Amino acid sequence: MTQAKSVIVKVLVLRGGGGHYATYLAIREVLAQARPSWQAAPSFADRLGAELEAETHSQPARKISQVTSSASDQFYDFILKNGLGWIHLLTVHIHKLITLMKHRLDVRLLTQTWKQASPDLVISVVPFQNRALAESLESDFPQVPVVTILTDFADSPPAYWMAPTTKNYVLCPSEKAVTQALSAGVKANRVIETSGLIIHPRFYLEASSSEASYEQKSSHSSAPDMAIRRQMLGLNPERMTGLVMFGANGSKAMLTVAKNLAALGDRIQLIFICGRNYRVAEAIKSCSPSHSLAQKKAVIGFTRDIPGYMQLADFFIGKPGNVSVSEAIATNLPTIVEHNWLTLTQEKYAADWLKDNQVGLSVRSFKDIAQAVETLIEPQNFSRYQQNLQRLENKAVFELPEILEQVLAEQTAAKKTKSARKQRSENQLSTPRNR
């Protein structure tokens, strides 16, 4: 039996926000399952050159790149945690300018990284960096393909993802993203549409069965298992349950949600996943509703078991983060998000996408969340949302291994064609002409 060829895959990733790193973890997991001979490892855009050996003499360059990138990621997490999205609207152009100013530096550090890693394939789940990534491979590794995977439903101005001057393949999770890529000038044979965003295979697992196949999608845990797990959280096994989550760093907006949903009393119960935002977690725990019918709630800190908690819920409330919305949809949770002029630029289309597909609602302010939840859980409406959810089949993570194999095959074929042309040209030059 022929042993499968080992393929070294490097993934350029960011820590800021959480969605980019979650996408990397999904890629790593599905490749480990579907292509065990492949080796996937990250290269962090906020730590460019950190893996390089001392003799590369890149310490000053590394420090400059790391300070600017790390500061940017920490600042992004800070504004999310404190509900200051409006600041991001002012700084996104500055971020792009900084990326442009250190472009040559990033190209140099990336080039040195590839010289040590010798990758067969490079994947990017990072915006703004895709031109630098492509240029870093041009001279020494022209045969190595670059695959840009959008972690947003669509590109956002000023051109987060699309780098049409490169030869990058672009994986687009929506028809709008495909249209954007083609309009931007990306060649049609480099634009690949997937059935949605890439999310971790665990969101397709039945929570009660650790032996289930990754492609065996189920909506929720079995009823007895769900009842037991809800009871363990101090919740009513039979009550309509909402999951409130605003990413790994939480948000002050969660407290607004908690206070306004208290008006619904025991008609619903809530699971709050506050991430690393311990102040908000404590504030929600101590929040005493004035309503006579006390509302049950479970307050969770940072956890890696997001799929498990989603499978205990009936609906989802959060910011319109592209990845978290996709995770909720995969778990069959109708979703409510806030959408106004303060919404992060890259998240605005996610709110539109929810409404277009009729699988959720958006509110202008979370002060109106109680009315939105009442509308959502009305039996006829809730049934319609669930039916619409069943029609969405996002299997992008399972499509990925075959897509990457095809990209590698195309690159190999192109390399052979180029080599054959070069050989013919050399033969023609070496053949004496008849006089």
Any overview of this molecule?
This protein is α/β, with parallel strands linked by helices and 435 residues long. It folds into two domains: 7-199 and 395-425, 3-Layer(aba) Sandwich (Rossmann fold), CATH 3.40.50; 219-391, 3-Layer(aba) Sandwich (Rossmann fold), CATH 3.40.50. Helix content is 45%, strand content 13%. Strands 2-1-3-4-5-6 form a six-stranded parallel sheet, with helices on both faces. Strands 9-8-7-10-11-12 form a six-stranded parallel sheet, sandwiched between helices. β7, α8 (253-261) and β8 (269-273) form a beta-alpha-beta unit. α1 (19-34) crosses α15 (396-430), α2 (59-81) runs antiparallel to α3 and α4 crosses α5 (130-138). The longest helix is centred in the last third of the chain and has 35 residues, at 396-430. The chain is elongated and about 95 Å long. It starts with 6 loop residues before the first strand and ends in a 5-residue tail after the last helix. The relative contact order is 0.11.
- Reported CATH architecture of the largest domain: 3-Layer(aba) Sandwich
User: How much is the average pLDDT?
Assistant: 83
What is the overall shape? elongated
Structural class comes to: alpha/beta
In the CATH scheme, what's the topology name of the largest domain?
Rossmann fold
Which spans have pLDDT < 50 for at least 5 consecutive residues? 53-57, 206-220
The rounded Rg comes to 24 Å
- What are the secondary-structure elements, in order, as H or E? EHEHHHEHEEHEHEHEHEHEHEHEHHH
